[in-house]
Known about the structure:
The protein is mainly beta and 379 residues long.
Amino acid sequence: MNHRHSTFCDPRNASGHVLNSTMVAAVFAAVLISGRVSAADVVTIAGTGTPGLEVGERLAKETPVGEPYGIAKGPDGALYICEIATHVVRRLDESTGKITVVAGNGKQGYSGDGGPAIEAKLNEPYEVRFDTAGNMFFVEMKNNIVRRVDAKSGIISTVAGTGKVGFSGDSGPATKAALNRPHSITLDHQGNLYICDIGNHRVRVVHLESGIIETFAGTGARKSTPDGASLKGTPLNGPRALDFDGRHSLYLALREGNSVYRIDLKTKTLHHLAGTGKKGFTGNGGPARLATLSGPKGISISRNGDVFLADTESHSVRVIRASTGILELLVGDGQRGDGPDGDPLKCRTARPHGVFVDALGNVYIGDSETHRVRRFSVD
């Protein structure tokens, strides 16, 4: 995952090195049986259930958050949270339970490049990631841009997009290219920034060293994606969420396509993992490829290759097991609600958009329309 990068670094870089994939797999195997979860718990770690913005360092459980979307752990081990209702990115230190704003002044807009990130105006930050140097990147859907916050100085800058909606700029500077409601980003270990340019039904890539942008996948057509197809000339129907596995694959969730694909970066091919293409909430405990998904909008890859999904319109978090190809229900029951905390399968959510799994197997959920951030923890 690209979150294995980064002071804002992925704790999976720090703590993750002491857990190999076998150990992580063993943890999950011990608590997951036949598509149902046991010996696990869900707790709210931020938010009060109502949207709001209170500045300064505050206790996260007593502080309102506003529609949390993308979430990721940084190199410092803290959790970073994109909020679209308050137009900020926050940092949650789980060791102290304190939450602070690290980007955005709470006012909707597009300003502040060249200055401190906390003084900038943002417009619906959707997802946050970190590079190997610890610099923070986030995508602003309504501004049609991707921005970067320098790890050392805290200065914000635009790295892709002009602020206007459109499709242009391939083979030129990314800051002069037009995007169309970009939703998700990820980074690999080669200095490439991938963007789900969902309105253009494409994945774009920015080569950060040169600043050049190009189309990486998708043709602009809203058509089905054949299994095993080459990236070149193959359509993508609503590319919504991306993650990097830290090796040689990207994982892509298609919102309108209601499916999940693995992109092999070596062979430049697409491989179908989950979803029939039809919208629904079926198939838990069976082969993921035969299951129906419901507008997946968040994706996160564990160290052992399990694929975690925020299956937004079914109000649930589901997981594709790498060892079996089986789809399991992790949190929720398919119905909209607000908890209660405790038993994962009795804890309802409301259109969750963000999901992140760390090296210990903890799964963090941006439970968007309950205005809470929740954590699924294994015993």
